[in-house]
Amino acid sequence: MSTQGHDMQRGLKNRHIQMIALGGAIGTGLFYGSAETIKLAGPAITLSYLIGGLVIFFIMRMLGEMSVDEPVSGSFSHFAYKYWGEFPGFVSGWNYWFNYIVVSMAELTAVGIYINYWFPNVPHWVSALVFLVVITLANLMNVKMYGEFEFWFAIIKVVAILGMIIFGLFLIFSGINGQATGLSNLWTHGGYLPNGLGGLVLSLVPVMFSFGGIELIGITAGEAANPKKTIPQAINQVMWRILIFYVGALTVLMIIYPWNQVGLDGSPFVQIFSKMGITAAATLLNVVVLTAALSVYNSGIYSNGRMLYSLAQQGNAPKFLEKLNKNGIPVAGVLASSGMTLIAVILNYLIPGKVFMYLFAVAIIAGIINWTMIIITNLKFRKAKAAQGEADKLDFKTPLHPYTNYLCFAFLIMIVVLMTTIESMRMAVYILPVWLLILWIGFKAKKSAR
Questions:
Q1: Residue 375 contacts residue 59 (beta carbons within 8 Å)
Q2: How many domains, the chain?
């Protein structure tokens, strides 16, 4: 209950939920982070995304099972608090907030990289600051405004990727100058697995960054007009979206251009068409990747405001964050989250050019904590439902429960172990226990203050 007498509004329609789900699956991880994956896996990047996508699909089904049964704002933090305990609820909520703060910082950093394609002399921090202000203002209006922003952002991404796939297929079979590209780039530069199985397995680490934030589908349940219908639809479509937008687009890129000539100094999508001399396509794609970054930042501000609101309702955050304005917007939560992402602006000012990979690694670790919490909470949720005799009445069951829970959990442990072998990501693994200790201290401080 809001301290201002207002409630959250169910202003997100089916088309909004569908596009929010899609927006969560298509962002900087695909458009920029895929450069790192290509370096590790080569043409087998498509297989990397299939494996990672399958794991994420199962985790989303676990979240969906709970969200459809209890469509509340705050999503898995609420479920962890209710079915696991106070500390897991505290950890789940604050870690999700922290995760999306880091992801939002990475997206703001990527915005500066994309703007430099047209204006190379504009500092990254300037671009980041401008877009931070614009997106924050949009999120302070009403939830429908957020939904409309995200709807059109996602439409641009979808149309552009489909257009790129179609144009890429044209190049493969006809060629710009009448000479077809053919399929040989998939195996003539070291083979389909140029770095062997080791490269494929290592590539799963940056792949998982691409899926960070997809759990936003569950966060929208509290403001969805018909959650029992729209949430299952959105989650079930995640798999084919990954097939089309990730696997389809990257397969086309790997065919039309040698994988070993893709650099790390920009989006592979823009680089490839630019190096092929198709500047119009490169410029258009740069608009798209910029839109994608803004889309994820938009979702970050939205979800973080709601998570702080949920934490305040639980008593796990200051009460002022529970306040809603007349439009049902958690203004304090939105402004607090937006204010934290200002750190990205400062970092881009202090260490330009190095920020993205640091944030990239920390975001993966925070995402792994989120997904692990969902997996374990779902096991406890199902156990509670079984004890109440309601397990068979669930409308949206996780396939092959509980075996998929255990499989996904083992996969996430493997990702953390792999991160210790990658120099640029090792520090993030060391941050993990420190972050959990900070959360434990915060929880104990909250308990003692009662």
A1: yes
A2: 1
**Cα angle 26-28-30, degrees, rounded to a multiple of 5:** 60
Q: Which of 396, 392, 408 is nearest to 65 (CA)?
A: 396
Q: Say if 8 falls within a structural domain.
A: no
Neighbours of 433 (CB within 10 A): 9
Q: Answer for the pair 19, 151: CB distance below 8 angstroms, yes or no.
A: yes
Domain assignment present for 450: no
- What pTM was estimated for this model as a whole? 0.83
C-alpha torsion sign, points 66, 72, 73, 79? negative
Ramachandran assignment for 12, one of left (phi > 0), alpha (psi -120 to 50 degrees), beta (any other): beta
Q: Report which of 303, 306, 314 is spatially closest to residue 90, judged by C-alpha positions.
A: 314
d(CA 313, CA 128): 32
Q: Looking at residue 194, what is its pLDDT?
A: 94
Residue 257 has which token pair?
A: 């251009």
Amino acid 450: pLDDT: 66
Q: What is the pLDDT of residue 81?
A: 86
Roughly how many angstroms between the first and final C-alpha of the chain, as a whole number?
20
Q: What is the CATH number of the domain that holds 297?
A: 1.20.1740.10
pLDDT score at 1: 36
Full domain range(s) for residue 166: 14-445
Q: Which amino acid type is present at position 278?
A: I
- Selection from 293, 242, 276, 227 nearest residue 65 by Cα: 227
Q: Which of 135, 444, 450, 442 is nearest to 305 (CA)?
A: 135
User: Locate tokens 């500066």: which residue?
Assistant: 112
User: In order along the chain (450 residues), what is the average pLDDT of each group of 10 residues?
Assistant: 46 61 65 82 92 92 89 74 90 87 84 87 89 87 72 80 85 68 84 94 90 70 68 77 81 88 76 79 82 82 83 84 82 91 85 75 89 95 92 90 97 96 86 92 86
For residues 269 and 267, give the distance between their C-alpha atoms in angstroms, rounded to a whole number. 5
Question: Letter for the amino acid at 273?
Answer: F
Structure tokens at 137: 């203002």
DSSP percent split of the chain into helix, strand, coil, nearest 5: 75, 0, 25
Q: Is residue 290 in a domain?
A: yes
Residue 6 lies in a domain: no
Q: 349: which 2 tokens?
A: 């000012």
